[in-house]
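Figure caption, in words: inputs first, then the predicted bound structure.
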Amino acid sequence: MVDNIAVIAGATGAAASRLVELLAETPGWRVVGLCRRPPGTPRANVRYLAADLADAASCRRAVDEAGAVTHLVYAARAAFAEGGVEDVPANVAMLRNLLDACDRPGLRHVHLLEGTKWYGLHLGPFATPAREDDPRHMPPNFYYDQQDLLTERRTGKGWSWSASRPNLIVDFAPGRARNLVSTLGAWAAICRELGVPLDFPGRAGAYTALTELTDARLLARAIRWMLTDPRAADRAFNVTNGDPFRWSRLWPRLAAYFGLPCGQVRPLRLAAWMADKEAVWRRVSARHGLVPRRLSEVAPWDFADFALGFDYDVISSTTRAREAGFHDVLDTEAMLLGHLDAYREARLLP
Ligand SMILES: NC(=O)c1ccc[n+]([C@@H]2O[C@H](COP(=O)([O-])OP(=O)(O)OC[C@H]3O[C@@H](n4cnc5c(N)ncnc54)[C@H](OP(=O)(O)O)[C@@H]3O)[C@@H](O)[C@H]2O)c1
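Bound structure (NAP present):
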């Protein structure tokens, strides 16, 4: 029997696609996934509907089709440039359009995806471990406006809200370029092809700072918990693997995994430095019989510049979630190597 119908906006994205899978296989749940370009392949218990969140009428049509929505997960975002100032009015309008359509009797919970940018991760060093109630940074930050919209709209309503704040999300996600795993794998493959050691191409301070990642499946489990546990109601939670690491410790392991000597820190602006490497990647692909894909589809170098550029600690406290009842943790090193294995098995990386 289906008790819950979850509308998940941004259903094909990094933050939500594992949640779609997880809820679809959780007894009592049905999922309606919204995005502009729904996937063609069907999935049991999931209905993908095309909707443009920037268009209020499109949101209403999709929600009418979804049926009696009990839970809303908002994991979409307006187009943005890596490291730039994100568009607050566009992001808030998208959430508002969908909330207007879903805010009916029967709605029980609304979950909002936020992230470590809440703490100003993209601006420079911030107080660590970051706690959910830390002071906000100077706006703009679309998460602030979105969460304020939710808390305002929730007053006097029968639904509660929650928010998750993951750090960089990692996954085996072949169709999604913006992924640290495939980017690191492509970097290593090109180092090997060119006969150079595995240098760390980020900032020197990023090699030694403490940092952390969020596995997409762990995030999905955390969100499922927030959707239903009363202890999570009307609160935001940091969600990470829970084991901060330093690249300086992990890098030799990665070098060994790729069969390369561990190199040195060599800060490069990868977006510029790797621009001429398509031909090298074609050679790598041919030599290893990889599924043919352009290097730019495997490794978005501007994203790598962003992800390996934090020359300060990036740590969020997960105490609040643990105290409230979510205890999952994950070994980040094993997670990264496991995802790399999956890319190899799919013949997407050598
Ligand atoms: N990725 C990370 O590492 C990360 C880390 C921390 C926090 N977050 C946060 O998580 C949230 C989701 O980010 P993400 O990385 O999952 O994004 P993403 O991978 O770029 O996916 C965005 C999703 O939203 C959909 N979408 C975009 N514009 C839409 C529109 N106008 N109408 C309907 N659907 C639309 C996209 O599908 P279509 O293009 O088909 O519409 C896609 O399903 C954001 O708030 C982000 O800041 C992400």
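The radius of gyration is 20 Å.
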